[in-house]
Amino acid sequence: MSNRIDVALTINGRLHNLNVRPDLTLAETLRDELNLTGTKIGCDDSNCGVCTVLLDGMAVKSCAMLVGQADGREITTIEGLETGDGLHPLQQAFIDYFAVQCGFCTPGMILTAKAILDENPKATEEDIREGLHGNLCRCTGYVQIVEAIESVRDGKYGEARA
Amino acid sequence: MNTLIGKGEKRIDAYDKVTGKGMFASDFFSRAAKMPQMRLLTSPHAHAKILRLDVSRAENMPGVIKIITSKEPGVDWDQFPKPAYLAQDRVIWAGQVIALVLAETREIAEEAIGAIEIEYEVYPHVLNYDEAMEPNPKAVVDPEYETRAAGFSDRPGDRASDRKSPNVVGAFKLNTGDVDRALKESDIVIEHNYFTGKKTANPLETATAVCEYSPDGTLTMTSNGAGVHGVIKQTLCRVLGLKQSKLRCIQPYQGGSFGSRLNPFIEVLTALMASRAKCGVACSYTRKESFTTGPSNWPCYTTVKLGAKKDGTIIANDFTLGEEIGACINNSFFSGRLSSSGVAPCYRFPNTRMDTFAVATNTVPAAEYRGLGCPETEFGIECVINELADGLGISPVEIRLKNILDPGDLNIYGEPIRSTGLKKCLQSVADAIGVDEKPVQDMGVWKKGRGCAVGGKQNTPLGRAEAKVWFNCDGTIELFTSVDEMGMGATTTMAQICANEMGVRMEDVKLTNSDTAITPYDNYSASSRATYTAGNAVIIACDDLKRKLKEEVAREFGMHPSKVEIQGTTAILKGAALESVSIPSLFKGWTPFSQNNWGLKIGSPVEGVGIFCPAPVQMWDKDGRSPRIWNWFQYSAAAIEVAVNEETGQVQVLRVASSSDTGNPINPDIIRGQTIGGVHMAIGFALNEEHLYDENGMISNANLSDYRLPTILDMPLKENVHDFINPDSLPDGPYGAKGMAESVTVPVAPAIQEAIYQAVGVRINGYPMTAERVLAAIKEKKQKEAAR
After folding, report:
1. Can you name the CATH fold of A5-80?
2. Main-chain phi, psi angles of B60, to 5 degrees
3. Residues of B whose CB is below 8 A from A139
């Protein structure tokens, strides 16, 4: 199997040792190999943002990254946000503020929002807009998305869990 | 009882979507990675003869299962949806499918496509309205133009020989009053030509279908197309000759649609392959294929000539419209009638003449997209009305209030308006933005301007919707519908109506949606009809269920059903010793001594069914008039402040107010999302989106870098986004509700056009109003001023 590579990915806290084709993107690996289909694919050229995951805490577009580039890294996908204690505050806020319509952009949007607030817990509306401008949403017009993120920033859901 | 209507109940699909657990068709596609994969060979030329097509080398590659071309026996391609029409001897647009390749893996399928041998003789092509409309055009799009039976017409008496070009493939005309006389009597007449861009809806999930094949030939189609019953199943059965019993269509969550999924192209191609190859088939379009293989919207080219009296009363409307429909050959859908319906909803227009038609080009076939051509049609009308206001020195609000139809008025078809809150919509947005006041110019080269416009959209009566509702033995409610949950919240609205009717909490209603083996018939969720049509069906189903529950309870106590009332899971017994009883307590378990042939039985729900369909349309007369040509009208108004950079032509929307007449709203928070989302989408229509072509006639910006969809940065800051609901109850709507999500998009572009004019003094008579076009107009204006 010389045309495959070994990679070690820590996904949502769990180590996965994989032997995969090197031409797979991280997005394809998550979806097709690991059945983590919460990460979506929408455009193939990293313009829509629905494939966003957190790589060592940074928001990255997983369709624009080969699986080998993620070797040894820690990845958070949307499946990793809900814990035994319940939904992540951003997930709950997206429900409460009607920031979800078709839902296809939602996982990437929530993960990008998490990266924005993790980096800057006092992010202003301008900061949030700057952070989200690579995540397309065709349905909402973004206002309710910003309201949801600001409500978490303002502590409406208590301290956000890391 | 009315406790949940008008409340912002949480979406029932939100948990699934925020956790990534909700399944979309593309997630089933990922899970089907081991299934045979289908890929497409598409044309690189807009118009060419296929001299040679040889698939033998590709067919013999290891792992290739089957290749289908137009030579596949026993296929009636003319019946296929236009984007799924495989090229015969000619390709008629760049992106048209030539061959379908099924292989064990996607990679093998791609490789096999490369091994197909094909030679073309390139023909001249027509890519736009003007080229196609030449009397002797460079290309006639329909290869069978000479031999095909007379083209489609929505107007009795229209003749193909009257048409301006062989690419005109449909016509509709309307005449009411005396336009020529009214034009003569007008104090002011303004006339302009308007264009609109050809665009792709771009829902973020591309078209995807997974078709399983059972040994007895049954196909199970899981896809993101719209209308599992009315569109997908019925099209596949008709086109492919499948038995109704041997096709099951399932729709998981749809990653957006905006109308673009009403064309079941991917389902037809996938099912054709599955039934011929006798195996499962999975297929998903790339983003590029979404643009080039289709479908697109249809741009409209209008000539709008309005005449008004000094006081602003508009008395004449002479209106010409061409729908550019791409390579839709054998047209049986487009005639201009759909787009030109945008002339009707808002204004009285007592003397109107409409000459409308459909024009084929060598571009991707057109299909439905939010508003059905009405945003494109109404753009010109709204722009001319703003100019009339300017010319007469009256406010753009006042001129509209003078001419907007009131409930009970007859529109241009002679059809009464049953519900309109448009005047209030306009007033609310005009006040929010201060349309009649001039903005302070404090942004240097960025000049500010304000504008407003209104819009309306007809609801086409599209047949029936059914609903089924169960009362389970434990008191839980199950609702079965087949609405399209493309994101607009229809499933939540249905559950909300059901919970309200049954007097239970939202969380006590479980909805199962869109699976033809389980859920009842619904044509499809189009023309903003789901709330109205399916919502009425849910109410009727709940009434039926309550009637049956009353009978069951009454029988139990030896009473007449009229003496029983159902309140949630409790039955109120009037005049009985026992005043009320828990309905679940009446369901009985089975024992050998009570066989439970009758009565309430544990495990067997009581079922109510509901069917609703609107009254039919009445055929229009020779003048295109009818007392009922549409059903009802939804309305919206927008007021917008923009800043225009006079050095670069860039336009930034600074403030926006949008208001909708939704009828009585069922869920205002869902409507808010539709309103703001509609504005955002329409900002894209207005400023950015259009197909561009290379020398082969291929779309050159068929990706999301070069075709710029609006982002969050194209929206104003949230304190500058205002949304309102100004309802006028619809008499036969559920709780007086009607649909709303299409009309929101209509007034945005014309309001921006006027705001640009107020800012820098140039009128862009078409959209998208790109920086390039705005800058060119500013330069032209400066040159003219310098020459003076």
Report:
1. Ubiquitin-like (UB roll) (3.10.20)
2. -90, 0
3. 256, 487-488, 673, 677
**pLDDT for residue A162:** 43
Residue boundaries of the structural domains of chain B? 20-124+207-287, 300-461+620-787, 462-612
Measured CA distances, B267 to B83, B294, B325 (Å): 11, 14, 22
A12 touches chain B (CB under 8 A): no
Tally of CB atoms within 10 A around B151: 23
Token pair of B281 as six digits: 């088939």
CATH 3.30.365.10 fits B462-612, yes or no: yes
> Tokens in use for A118?
């993790």
**What is the distance of C-alpha A126 from the center of its chain?**
20
User: CATH topology for A89-153?
Assistant: DNA polymerase; domain 1 (1.10.150)
**Interface check A22 vs B, CB under 8 A:** no
Picking from B658, B713, B662, the residue whose alpha carbon sits closest to that of residue B684 is: B713
What strands, in cross-sheet order, belong to the sheet with B564-567?
Answer: B564-567, B570-573, B580-582
To the nearest whole Å, the CA of A120 is away from the closest chain B CA by: 19
Residue-level pLDDT at A67: 97
Q: Do B205 and A143 count as a contact with CB atoms less than 8 A apart?
A: no
Q: How many CB pairs under 8 A join A and B?
A: 182
Considering the domain B20-124+207-287, what is its CATH architecture? Answer: Alpha-Beta Complex (3.90)
Residue ranges for chain B with pLDDT beneath 50: none
How close is the nearest chain A Cα to the Cα of B458, in Å?
Answer: 22
Same CATH fold, A89-153 and A5-80?
no
List the structure tokens of B265: 């192209």
pLDDT of residue A1: 44
Q: What is the pLDDT of residues B90-135, one digit of tens each?
A: 999 999 999 999 999 999 999 999 999 999 999 999 999 999 999 9
Predicted local distance difference test score (pLDDT) of residue B205: 98
pLDDT, position B149: 67
**Tokens at residue B499, please?**
């919970």
A42-90 pLDDT, tens digit each: 998 899 999 999 999 999 999 999 999 999 999 999 999 999 999 999 9
d(CA B475, CA B508): 8
Domain ranges of chain A: 5-80, 89-153
Q: Do domains B20-124+207-287 and B300-461+620-787 have the same CATH topology?
A: no
**Residue B148 confidence (pLDDT):** 73
The class level of CATH for B300-461+620-787 reads alpha beta
Do the Cβ atoms of B257 and B526 come closer than 8 Å? Answer: no
Q: Does B230 touch chain A (CB under 8 A)?
A: no
Q: Which residue, chain included where needed, has tokens 């416009």?
A: B453
Using a CB–CB cutoff of 8 Å, tell me whether B160 touches chain A: no
How far, in Å, CA of B488 to CA of B256, rounded? Answer: 9
**Can you state the angle between helices B374-392 and B396-403, rounded to 10 degrees?**
110
Residues 6+ apart with CB under 8 A from B274: B211, B212, B213, B219, B280, B281
